[in-house]
Amino acid sequence: MKIAHKITPQTNLGELIDLIEETHHTFTRSELTRISGLMEDPELASLSQLDALRQCFHALKADLESHLRKEEEILFPYIASLDSGLANLPASCFGSVANPIRMMRIEHITMISLLETLRELTSQYTPLADSVPPTFLLYASLAGIDADLVEHMYWEDHVLFPRALQVESRITREKDAG
Ligand SMILES: [Fe+2]
Ligand SMILES: [Fe+2]
To answer: Which of 18, 64, 121, 135 has CA 20 to 30 A from 46's CA?
Structure first.
């Protein structure tokens, strides 16, 4: 767990978002670019399932690029603003934060199913002993982005989103109490 040692119950929403973005979003973007390049190695032509592997990886890449953008540009700035409480809460275009969170969770499930397909196509990222050398680097890189995504989604689904929902409902109760 790359960021576990930096998170405490006192870590506020903005700090949690910074950790997720600096660690997981940055890693994901650079690995998507690097792995796209690895996939084009002509030596991989003999790899069985190469077309299916490329197709699945590019579907995951497209989903992730749009997902990260939505989090960074819309959802996360709103969640970070919850730290400052009622007085500074900006108007949102989506009603309760529960709505975009529900969308992000659905997108996580779609991406997990693409990861499951990648795992199946690569026998859990295990190259055959006689595979051409670039296969080893490609599979190790895919295993790396898979493990990072699992951690990344854990912090969002089980820590950031529940805390954001909790803080928003506290602020809403305060507002209703006048
Ligand atoms: Fe994210
Ligand atoms: Fe996410």
So the answer is: 64
Residue 44 CA, ligand 2 centroid: distance in Å: 31
pTM: 0.94
Q: Which tens digit of pLDDT belongs to each residue from 150-159? A: 999 999 999 9
* Domain total of the chain: 1
Q: For 28-81, what is each residue's pLDDT tens digit? A: 999 999 999 999 999 999 898 999 999 999 999 999 999 999 999 999 999 999
- Is residue 1 in a domain? no
Distance 130 CA to ligand 1 centre (A): 37
Question: How far does the centroid of ligand 1 lie from the alpha carbon of residue 46, in Å?
Answer: 35
Residue 23 is assigned to a structural domain of this protein: yes
Residue 104 falls within a domain, yes or no?
A: yes
3-state secondary structure 119-135: HHHCCCCCCCCCCCHHH
Query: What are the Cα distances from residue 176, in Å, to 135, 158, 170?
Result: 59, 27, 10
